[in-house]
Structure formats: C-alpha cells, structure tokens
Design goal:
It is a single chain. 40% of the residues lie in helices and 14% in strands. It is α/β, with parallel strands linked by helices. Strands 3-2-1-4 form a 4-stranded parallel β-sheet. Strand 1, helix 1 and strand 2 form a beta-alpha-beta unit. The chain starts with 6 loop residues before the first strand and ends with a helix. Bound molecules: NADP nicotinamide-adenine-dinucleotide phosphate. The site of NADP nicotinamide-adenine-dinucleotide phosphate has 29 residues, from helix 1 and strand 2.
Length: 164
C-alpha cells in the first residue's frame, strides 16, 4: 500500500460497476470495503474487505456503519452502487426508513445505460427493457470512468485541504 492509499467503501461492490470500481481501487493498492448480500460474488475479489449485509433494512445499514466506524479510522469515499429494482412495490418488515443527514458531500453521477447485472425482480415488460439495456449498454469498464474521475478529483481535493 502506498502512503496515498485511500479507504473506499462501495455498497453493491460485489457486482456491476461497484465490482469494477472495487477491482480498480484494489489494483491501485487502496483499502476497498465492499458491501453486498452474496459472499460467493465477494470471493471473486480477493483483497477486498467484505461486509455481508442486506441494505434494504435500516437496521443493517446501522450495523454496517458501526462496523465501518469500528474497523477503519477514516473513509475517503463512499460509493453507493447497491441497487435492487422491483417492478412491484415492496415494503420491508421495517416499513419505510428515513435517510440520515450529516456533513457529507454528495456527488450524483449517471453514467447512462451500462451493461451490468441489473439486479432486480422485474415484470415481463420491464425485463424485456432491461435485457435491451444489457445488450446495448456501455461496457462496465466505460461506465465506471466518469465515477473514477470524480472520485479521484474529490480525494485529491480532500488530501490538499488536509495538508493546509
Ligand atoms: N447499469 C446501468 O445502466 C446504470 C445506469 C445509471 C445508473 N446506474 C446506477 O449505478 C449503480 C450500480 O448499478 P449496476 O447496474 O452496476 O448494479 P448491478 O449490476 O445491478 O449490481 C447491484 C449491486 O447491488 C447489490 N445489492 C442489491 N440489493 C442489495 C441489498 N438489499 N443489500 C446489499 N446489496 C445489494 C448487489 O450485491 P449482491 O448481489 O451481493 O447482493 C450488487 O452488487 C446503481 O446505483 C445504479 O442505480 C446504473
């Protein structure tokens, strides 16, 4: 690990763009924490720190936050790539959760259609649309480029402001 190595937390880091980002930052020597529900997928990313969690549950989000706070002195970037699309409304056993607030810098990036796993539970019409997105979406390696550019800018900016 280099002295400029970062700690990057990627929810949904087991598949799609999250996985590709995890692989990119692992190759750079960063500490990469991935969160997902599938340990077998996580095992395909040796070196990543895996936290098994179902993030559809607020209690699981809190548990993951506690684990990250306890294990890592600092987190340089959180990349929220976990998603699960449902064609039909689904309410977890916990009901509807409220989002926490705090001193966090949010960066919203939409890379356009990218050919990923599109994790979800689709009705037939949506499944056909998703299949078309998978056929015509950009390769994952292209989809993560704007995300890497923003993450790198952000972490450079943070490092500079810490040096002042
Ligand atoms: N693909 C596109 O065309 C596109 C375009 C614009 C924006 N985006 C956004 O880009 C991000 C990544 O999308 P993607 O297409 O790369 O994703 P993806 O291939 O569908 O993968 C989804 C990821 O979310 C995780 N996940 C799903 N439900 C979860 C849960 N309940 N708890 C924890 N983890 C869960 C999955 O992990 P497990 O299987 O391990 O649970 C998997 O790693 C998402 O925010 C998406 O909305 C995608």
């Amino acid at each position: 690990m280099t002295s400029t190595a970062k700690t990057i937390v990627i929810s949904g880091g087991t598949d799609g763009m999250g996985r590709a980002l995890a692989s990119t930052y692992l190759d750079r020597g960063d500490t990469v924490v991935i969160i997902g529900r599938d340990a077998a997928k996580a095992a395909t990313l040796p070196g990543a720190h895996f936290i098994l969690a179902d993030l559809s549950l607020a209690s699981e989000n809190r548990r993951v936050l506690e684990e990250i706070n306890a294990r890592y002195p600092a987190v340089d970037a959180l990349v929220p790539c976990a998603r699960y699309f449902r064609s039909n409304r689904f309410v977890t056993a916990e009901g509807v959760a409220r989002h926490p607030t705090g001193p966090t810098c949010y960066v919203l990036i939409n890379p356009g259609p990218v050919s990923t796993s599109f994790a979800g539970d689709y009705d037939p019409a949506t499944a056909a649309h998703v299949a078309a997105l998978q056929r015509h979406g950009a390769p994952v390696g292209e989809g993560i480029k704007p995300i890497i550019a923003r993450l790198d800018n952000l972490t450079r900016h943070l490092l500079r402001s810490q040096e002042k």
